[in-house]
């Protein structure tokens, strides 16, 4: 347990105690179940499989990583099946769960090909490039174009030709309002690019969800505009290991027997419900000065949690404010019914409450719901620009019911 002293009114000193991060009740219960296992060397495997929902190959990878990370710890002795296996201590177990590197909320590796194979394929023979005729380039180029005349005419699909159409965000709004089905049909066979309207001279961004939910493949942004929209973009492309490619859901690529397509504005039944529990946070005391958030006391943190997606799923909720604590413990759960989880993003943002001024920013992240790993997870937070903090993280639990 540490303590912090703050000067008040130039002559008084206020002291605050800051307890170290302690395992919440759910973590203690999980550890108790682990330690009461008849076969202690299988307890962690069962926890990873049944509680965390990890597939067998991922369980083996995690156990190997744990053994290499802390060869003298209780978890490593359990993993390696030493002659005297022992249950990991509560501190070891809590440390594992609260580590973003060991226990991340989404998968870290992408599904792309071997980088060495990619490099070899990308190396072109200079002689081949020199001898290639211009006609060959025309065969493999998808020509770009802007709409001429009515938008509906521009969205007509030519079965014998693939096109790339560019629309401004304003044109997209008009098109999806009056011809939403035509937009989706167009994107099933052609490429649609959306770009910011010209009046965004301050480098702000538009909400990309309208473009994504209508199948647009290229959603161009002002990358220097560090706002909510850019955070959604960063979160969306954390999927698939952050490789830069995210496959569209199948329902955006298929057509019904009567030519009907997906309608993001339609009233749809709930497909799944995401339960999110925010246990606690830590790391600000390591990454920030003691007066960064408040000159006279430790910070008063609260967390905002919500969904960005189709209109029916989009919502934001928040925890209560924990006053004067560098290690806030909220232990609050939120429920999010989802009609289209394949296009939903989980938004997480920590704010420091300020009674007289604008609340201070304490970190954020955005995660693709369709790739969330269930169970108790360590969620690293990022700054406004999307750079990951060195130490700041939340302990959370995700459940699909």
UniProtKB/TrEMBL annotation:
<dbReference type="GO" id="GO:0048015">
    <property type="term" value="P:phosphatidylinositol-mediated signaling"/>
</dbReference>
<feature type="region of interest" description="Disordered">
    <location>
        <begin position="104"/>
        <end position="126"/>
    </location>
</feature>
<keyword id="KW-0443">Lipid metabolism</keyword>
<dbReference type="GO" id="GO:0006950">
    <property type="term" value="P:response to stress"/>
</dbReference>
<dbReference type="GO" id="GO:0005886">
    <property type="term" value="C:plasma membrane"/>
</dbReference>
<dbReference type="InterPro" id="IPR017946">
    <property type="entry name" value="PLC-like_Pdiesterase_TIM-brl"/>
</dbReference>
<dbReference type="GO" id="GO:0016042">
    <property type="term" value="P:lipid catabolic process"/>
</dbReference>
<keyword id="KW-0378">Hydrolase</keyword>
<dbReference type="InterPro" id="IPR001711">
    <property type="entry name" value="PLipase_C_Pinositol-sp_Y"/>
</dbReference>
<protein>
    <recommendedName>
        <fullName>Phosphoinositide phospholipase C</fullName>
        <ecNumber>3.1.4.11</ecNumber>
    </recommendedName>
</protein>
<dbReference type="InterPro" id="IPR000008">
    <property type="entry name" value="C2_dom"/>
</dbReference>
<feature type="compositionally biased region" description="Acidic residues">
    <location>
        <begin position="110"/>
        <end position="125"/>
    </location>
</feature>
<dbReference type="InterPro" id="IPR035892">
    <property type="entry name" value="C2_domain_sf"/>
</dbReference>
<keyword id="KW-0807">Transducer</keyword>
<feature type="domain" description="PI-PLC Y-box">
    <location>
        <begin position="166"/>
        <end position="252"/>
    </location>
</feature>
<dbReference type="Pfam" id="PF00168">
    <property type="entry name" value="C2"/>
</dbReference>
<dbReference type="InterPro" id="IPR001192">
    <property type="entry name" value="PI-PLC_fam"/>
</dbReference>
<dbReference type="GO" id="GO:0004435">
    <property type="term" value="F:phosphatidylinositol-4,5-bisphosphate phospholipase C activity"/>
</dbReference>
<dbReference type="Pfam" id="PF00387">
    <property type="entry name" value="PI-PLC-Y"/>
</dbReference>
<keyword id="KW-1003">Cell membrane</keyword>
<keyword id="KW-0472">Membrane</keyword>
<feature type="domain" description="C2">
    <location>
        <begin position="254"/>
        <end position="383"/>
    </location>
</feature>
<dbReference type="GO" id="GO:0051209">
    <property type="term" value="P:release of sequestered calcium ion into cytosol"/>
</dbReference>
<keyword id="KW-0442">Lipid degradation</keyword>
């Amino acid at each position: 347990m540490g303590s912090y002293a703050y000067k008040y009114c130039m002559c008084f000193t206020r002291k605050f105690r800051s307890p170290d991060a302690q395992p919440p009740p759910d973590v203690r219960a999980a550890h108790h179940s682990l330690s009461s296992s008849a076969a202690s060397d299988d307890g962690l495997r069962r926890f990873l499989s049944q509680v965390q929902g990890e597939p067998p190959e991922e369980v083996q990878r995690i156990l190997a990583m744990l053994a290499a990370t802390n060869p003298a710890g209780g978890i490593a002795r359990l993993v390696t099946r030493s002659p005297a296996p022992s249950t990991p201590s509560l501190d070891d177990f809590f440390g594992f769960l609260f580590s973003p590197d060991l226990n991340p909320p989404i998968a870290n590796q992408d599904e792309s090909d071997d980088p060495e194979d990619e490099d070899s394929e990308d190396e072109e023979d200079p002689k081949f490039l020199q001898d290639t005729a211009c006609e060959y380039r025309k065969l493999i180029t998808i020509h770009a174009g802007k709409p001429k005349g009515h938008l509906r005419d521009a969205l007509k699909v030519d079965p014998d030709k693939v096109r790339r159409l560019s629309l401004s965000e304003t044109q997209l709004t008009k098109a999806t309002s009056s011809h939403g089905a035509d937009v989706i049909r167009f994107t099933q066979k052609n490429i649609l690019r959306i770009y910011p309207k010209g009046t965004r001279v301050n480098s702000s961004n538009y909400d990309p969800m309208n473009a994504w939910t209508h199948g647009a493949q290229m959603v161009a942004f002002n990358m220097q505009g560090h706002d909510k929209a850019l955070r959604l973009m960063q979160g969306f492309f954390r999927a698939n290991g952050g490789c830069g490619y995210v496959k569209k859901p199948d329902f955006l690529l298929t057509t019904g027997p009567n030519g009907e397509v997906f309608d993001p504005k339609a009233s749809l039944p709930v497909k799944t419900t995401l339960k999110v529990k925010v246990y606690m946070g830590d790391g600000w005391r390591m990454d920030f000065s003691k007066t960064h958030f408040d000159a006279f006391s430790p910070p008063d943190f609260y967390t905002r949690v919500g969904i960005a997606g189709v209109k029916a799923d989009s919502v934001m909720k928040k925890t209560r404010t924990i006053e004067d604590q560098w290690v806030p413990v909220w232990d609050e759960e939120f429920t999010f019914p989802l009609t289209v989880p394949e296009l939903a993003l989980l938004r997480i943002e920590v704010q420091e409450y300020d009674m007289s001024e604008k609340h201070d920013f304490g970190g954020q992240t955005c995660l693709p719901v369709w790739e969330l790993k269930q169970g108790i997870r360590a969620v690293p937070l990022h700054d406004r620009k999307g750079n990951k903090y060195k130490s700041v993280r939340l302990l959370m639990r995700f459940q699909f019911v």
